[in-house]
Amino acid sequence: MIKPKTTKRDTRKELESLVDQFIREKGEIQHIDMGESGLIDGKYNTSHIGFGEPKQDRTPLNHVVAAIQQRKKPTPPPRPAPRRPKKKIIYDDFGDPLRWVWEE
Q1: What is the pLDDT of residue 40?
Q2: What is the mean pLDDT of residues 55-69?
Q3: Of the candidates 70, 89, 78, which has an alpha carbon nearest to the alpha carbon of residue 99?
Q4: Could you tell me if 87 and 102 are in contact, meaning their C-beta atoms sit under 8 angstroms apart?
Q5: Where are the beta strands (DSSP E) in the chain?
Q6: N vs C: which end of the chain shows fewer Cβ within 10 Å?
């Protein structure tokens, strides 16, 4: 039997019931200031913030891209499908069929 997927609504209901159960059992929710959990030695962790550095110049590599494009082999044109021989009928002088001939 396949277990049905849990929906967002089910997940929300489960979380709400867990929070309500925690509060009913005399649990206390503490207020924590924004960013406080990210403090390292009393300071904010700024190692992941990359906007404080000046913009770096990029090295143009147009000549490298051009060299790579030149080295690429051109794709060969598609080969035509091999022609199949056709059956042709030979008629006599009176228009009656005589025989079949295969033509390429």
Answers
A1: 66
A2: 89
A3: 89
A4: yes
A5: 39-40, 43-44, 86-91, 97-103
A6: N
Q: What's the predicted TM-score (pTM) here?
A: 0.31
Tell me the mean pLDDT in the region 67-71: 89
In sequence order, the 6+-apart residues with CB closer than 8 A to the CB of 101 are 87, 88, 89, 90
pLDDT at 54 over 80: no
Tokens of 55: 């913009």
Amino acid identity of 9?
A: R
Encoding tokens for residue 93? Answer: 């002088």
The residue that leads in pLDDT, 48 or 30, is 30
What does the buried/exposed string (b/e) look like for 53-66 if buried means 16 or more CB atoms within 10 Å of the residue's CB? Answer: eeeeeeeeeeeeee
Contact, 43 vs 34, CB < 8 A? no
